[in-house]
C-alpha cells in the first residue's frame, strides 16, 4: 500500500504568478526536448540525449538554470 501526503501550498499572488510562469516554461522545455528526440528517432538517427540536452540548455539556461538537466533526464527516463 502506498501512502500519499497532500500539501496545500499557500503563496502570495506574486509568488503564484512566478510559479505559474515557471511551470509553463518547464512544460515548453519538456516539449522541446521531446520534439528534438522524436525528430531524431523519426529520421532513423541514433537519439543523442546529450546533444538534445545541450541544445535546450542553451535556450532556457537564463530562466530554468539547473532544472533543465532534471527535465531532460526525466524525459530520457520516459
Overview features:
extended, 78 residues, 3 helices, mainly alpha
Whole-number average pLDDT?
90
Number of helices: 3
Instruction: Tell me the span between the first and last alpha carbons.
Output: 24 Å
| Rg computed from alpha carbons, rounded to a whole number of angstroms | 16 Å
Beta-strand residue percentage: under 5%
When the domains are counted, the total is: 1
- What is the share of helical residues? over 70%
Describe the model.
With 78 residues, the chain is mainly α. The protein is built from 3 helices and no strands. The protein is extended, with a radius of gyration of 16 Å. The mean pLDDT is 90.
Write the layout of secondary structure elements.
Blueprint: H1 13-42, H2 49-64, H3 67-77
Helix pairs in contact: 1-2, 1-3, 2-3
Amino acid at each position: 500500500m502506498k501512502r500519499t501526503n497532500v500539501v496545500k501550498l499557500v503563496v502570495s499572488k506574486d509568488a503564484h504568478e512566478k510559479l505559474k510562469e515557471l511551470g509553463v516554461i518547464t512544460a515548453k522545455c519538456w516539449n522541446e526536448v521531446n520534439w528534438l528526440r522524436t525528430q531524431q528517432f523519426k529520421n532513423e538517427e541514433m537519439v543523442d540525449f546529450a546533444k538534445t540536452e545541450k541544445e535546450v540548455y542553451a535556450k532556457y539556461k537564463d530562466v530554468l538554470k539547473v532544472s533543465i538537466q532534471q527535465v531532460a533526464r526525466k524525459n530520457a527516463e520516459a
